[in-house]
Design a protein that fits this description.
- This protein has about 180 residues and is mainly α.
- Helices cover about 75% and strands about 0% of the residues.
- The chain has one domain.
- The protein starts with 11 loop residues before the first helix and ends with a helix.
């Protein structure tokens, strides 16, 4: 399947599966031990992917809180204080806000890449399981994230938020400079 999050076909299977270990190595009850081992690895890997998603959410919450606090503080400051502040101070404040928005964007991109790789591995693991819940069922049902009508990938939404804050910093700086 080529529409997996994070990219197209990767040739992952040869790197994922240990060719030296086969179901025949777990020969009791028709490979039951092998299937059990694959299932345990699958469960562990899905849990790891879920933890990455939780960290991603915490990162977004942190940056959202910091940005909201910065803009709230800027709005709470009196006009006289802003008029007395040197232009370089205003530019520095806006630059700091924009820089941390850039860091936020880079972290979102990094989490997208990491999750994409994890879900490609999960898709490969599912090929050895009775049901292909993510790769063939859920992701296909969502149109592989290709159509906004079917599903809007979270990363697209996430990326809009730091961009919006960066624009707000620029607009706020412009308004303060014009008001001087």
């Amino acid at each position: 399947m080529t529409g997996l999050p994070g990219g197209g076909p990767s040739g992952l299977a040869p790197r994922l599966w240990n060719g030296a270990v086969t179901p025949q190595d777990y020969a009791t009850a028709g490979g039951e031990k092998y299937q059990s081992a694959v299932m345990e690895q699958y469960k562990l890997y899905v849990e790891m992917a879920d933890r990455i998603s939780a960290r991603r959410s915490l990162t977004n919450t942190f940056f959202l809180t910091v940005n909201a606090a910065l803009l709230t503080a800027a709005g709470a400051v009196s006009r006289s204080f802003l008029r007395e502040l040197p232009v370089w101070g205003l530019l520095l404040a806006a630059l700091v806000g924009c820089c941390q928005c850039t860091v936020w964007l880079l972290l979102i991109r990094s989490y997208k890449q990491l999750n994409g790789a994890k879900y490609r591995v999960i898709g490969e693991l599912e090929k050895r399981l009775p049901a292909r819940l993510y790769l063939e069922a859920e992701w296909s049902e969502l149109g592989e994230g290709k159509s906004w009508k079917d599903y809007v990938p979270l990363t697209r939404v996430e990326l809009a938020v730091p961009g919006t804050f960066a624009v707000l910093y620029a607009v706020a700086l412009g308004m303060v400079l014009i008001a001087r």
